[in-house]
Amino acid sequence: MNVFQAGLFEGKVVLITGGGTGIGRALALAFGELGAMVVIAARREGPLSGVVKTIEDRGGRACMYTLDVRDEARVEEVVRGIWQDVGGVDVLVNNAGGNFMSPAVAMSAHGFRTVLDINLVGTFLMSQAVGRRWLDEGREGSIVNISATNAEYGSPLMAHSGASKAGINNLTQTLAVEWGGTGVRVNAVLPGPVRTEGSDERLWTDAALVERVEEGIPLGRFTTPRDVVGVVVFLASEAGAFLTGSLIALDGGERLRSLIF
Ligand SMILES: CCCCCCCCC/C=C/C(=O)SCCNC(=O)CCNC(=O)[C@H](O)C(C)(C)COP(=O)(O)OP(=O)(O)OC[C@H]1O[C@@H](n2cnc3c(N)ncnc32)[C@H](O)[C@@H]1OP(=O)(O)O
Ligand SMILES: NC(=O)C1=CN([C@@H]2O[C@H](COP(=O)(O)OP(=O)(O)OC[C@H]3O[C@@H](n4cnc5c(N)ncnc54)[C@H](OP(=O)(O)O)[C@@H]3O)[C@@H](O)[C@H]2O)C=CC1
């Protein structure tokens, strides 16, 4: 994104969970182009290695770890490894997420817990493993959580996702207060619907629904990964230095559509 200064993240390490596909991939490529050492972490090796290769082919630096953000021991092992291998983390983007569509009455408890575990518990575990080290070292850092606008209103067919993202919003504000004293900032971006590999496979399979949702967006289109990149880079940069505990909706006005009559 050429609105940002070249080399803006030179000397910084940016850790992105779920960096192999969708929004995470777009973030990884953007931070790579801005000079960061990019560390991506998710379950599948294939998408991760593709992103590392693309960043390196473009002259950037990147590495990858396989992990499940629900696995507390593995999260700790990976974060310890990152500190040993590249000297720590300056920016953590909690992007890994899961979702599927199901009426609440049909959703199994395991299905509900699965999405809560990935989105909310995963964000907590990653933030804790990184934040604990920042606090021990008296080091500044920035966390950007990828939440969603469904955190702010009813989330039909996505009860698990809406509840998890509302939890992420609250966690964002709690950690901002607890960790602000050492210069750690914690913010969240709340995208509206975004067309990605993961969401096209699970959410946006009904063409009529896609059309209806898109028509209801005041700015006339879905949020794009590129839109998310702009706000995340801004929050993680010096331009966002006095922002903490902020929840930034990024949806072209979609969440306000019911106010139009
Ligand atoms: C309009 C305005 C817009 C509003 C604004 C926009 C809001 C959008 C906000 C968010 C969007 C996104 O997150 S889009 C991100 C999409 N990307 C992803 O989801 C990628 C990662 N996803 C995954 O890995 C999987 O889909 C997920 C199920 C979450 C986790 O996989 P796991 O292998 O860990 O889990 P599994 O063992 O397969 O499944 C766990 C349980 O969940 C159940 N389960 C799984 N899929 C199911 C399904 N389709 N329907 C019912 N139940 C399902 C299984 O049956 C299991 O329950 P039992 O049978 O009881 O055992
Ligand atoms: N698409 C949309 O409409 C919206 C998406 N969001 C949020 O944006 C984020 C990215 O989603 P998006 O790019 O659309 O979807 P994708 O499915 O493309 O990306 C999600 C990524 O998360 C990783 N991931 C999922 N579960 C785990 C896990 N347990 N441990 C580690 N990594 C995991 C996946 O990699 P792997 O499978 O290899 O582990 C995948 O790369 C999510 O938090 C999502 O909730 C928010 C609002 C709207």
UniProtKB/TrEMBL annotation:
Keyword list, A-Z: Fatty acid biosynthesis, Fatty acid metabolism, Lipid biosynthesis, Lipid metabolism, Membrane, NADP, Oxidoreductase, Peroxisome, Phosphoprotein, Transmembrane, Transmembrane helix
InterPro entries named in the record: NAD(P)-bd_dom_sf, Peroxisomal_t2-enoyl-CoA_red, SDR_fam
Pathway given in the UniProt record: Lipid metabolism
Source species, domain of life: Bacteria
Transmembrane segments: 228-250
Protein localization: Peroxisome
Catalytic reactions of this protein: (2E)-tetradecenoyl-CoA + NADPH + H(+) = tetradecanoyl-CoA + NADP(+); (2E)-dodecenoyl-CoA + NADPH + H(+) = dodecanoyl-CoA + NADP(+); a (2E)-enoyl-CoA + NADPH + H(+) = a 2,3-saturated acyl-CoA + NADP(+); (2E)-decenoyl-CoA + NADPH + H(+) = decanoyl-CoA + NADP(+)
Gene3D superfamilies in UniProt: NAD(P)-binding Rossmann-like Domain
Enzyme class of the recorded protein, top EC level: oxidoreductase
EC number assigned by the record: 1.3.1.38
Description of how the protein assembles with itself and partners: Interacts with PEX5, probably required to target it into peroxisomes.
Purpose of the protein: Participates in chain elongation of fatty acids. Catalyzes the reduction of trans-2-enoyl-CoAs of varying chain lengths from 6:1 to 16:1, having maximum activity with 10:1 CoA. Has no 2,4-dienoyl-CoA reductase activity.
Protein name per UniProt: Peroxisomal trans-2-enoyl-CoA reductase
Organism: Lujinxingia sediminis
